[in-house]
Amino acid sequence: MASKAQPKVKSSQKKTLSFYYGELIKEKRKKKKLTQQQLADQIGKERAYIAKIEQGKTDLQISNFVQIINAFGLSLQIA
């Protein structure tokens, strides 16, 4: 069975995307008047993990992203 090739993403692109998503999450968290600790508590993670996401220093797994958007009262729609 042949596997599908994954598109290659350059390291610099990956860092840029991580930073971009981190900034979006930080902006939304602040609009909701949540601290990093409050958001972390809602999704069962450490505050340091939220800080790393917001700084673009870690890759954001889709499962964690879904938990975060749910904590913001949003939903994910894939068109």
Automatic annotation (TrEMBL):
HTH cro/C1-type domain segment(s): 25-79
Any Pfam family matching the protein: HTH_3
Gene3D superfamilies: lambda repressor-like DNA-binding domains
Record-linked PROSITE patterns: HTH_CROC1
SMART domains with a match to the protein in the record: HTH_XRE (SM00530)
PANTHER family: TRANSCRIPTIONAL REGULATOR-RELATED (PTHR37038)
Name of the protein described by the UniProt record: Helix-turn-helix transcriptional regulator
